[in-house]
Amino acid sequence: xxxxxxxxxxxxxxxxxxxxxxxxxxxxxxxxxxxxxxxxxxxxxxxxxxxxxxxxxxxxxxxxxxxxxxxxxxxxxxxxxxxxxxxxxxxxxxxxxxxxxxxxxxxxxxxxxxxxxxxxxxxxxxxxxxxxxxxxxxxxxxxxxxxxxxxxxxxxxxxxxxxxxxxxxxxxxxxxxxxxxxxxxxxxxxxxxxxxxxxxxxx
Length: 203
Fold this sequence. Notes:
Blueprint: E1 19-24, H1 31-42, E2 46-48, H2 49-53, E3 54-55, E4 59-60, H3 63-75, E5 80-84, H4 88-91, E6 101-106, H5 109-124, H6 139-144, H7 149-171, E7 179-183, H8 187-201
Parallel strand pairs: 1-5, 1-6, 2-5, 6-7
Antiparallel strand pairs: 3-4
C-alpha cells in the first residue's frame, strides 16, 4: 500500500501556512506521542479527545457536551491544531472534515501491543499520567473487564485497519486526498518526522 509520492509534501496544510492535523489509529499505536511531537514542531496546540471525553472517574461526557467541547477547542485555535483520537461514532466529521491532514498510524500489532502493555503497567503503578486527569487505571478493569484497554487493542486491530484502509483508498494523498498512512517498524515514521521538520525550517 503506497503511502507517499515525491510530489506530495509531508503535510498539506491549508495553503496559508496553517495545519489542522488529525491523528488516527488503534489504541496504543502512538497517536498521543506523535501529536505532542507535532505540536512542538509546528507550534500549534495539541488537543486530546480523551481529555475532552472522559471526566474524572472515567465518566463519559454526554454526546452533545462532547461535541460542543471539541467544537470550542477547534474554533479557539484558528492557527491550527493537532488532534489525536478516533471518536468518529460520537463526533461524525467535526474533526476530519476540518483537518487539512489526517495521519493514520498503522504499525504492526507486534510492535505496538507490547508498548501498550508497558504503558498500562506504568499507569497502574501511577508512574505515568492517565489518558485523562482523574482516570486512573485499575487492575480489575485492565485484566477482568470487557472495557480493558488491552482487550480493546487486540480486538479492534483488524477492525480499525480495515476501516482506515478503505478511507485511505478513497482519500489518500496518492489519489489527491488528505490521508496519509504511516506503517512499518518505526523507520517510516522517523523519516516522515524529519521531512516535517525540514519543511518547517524552509517556511
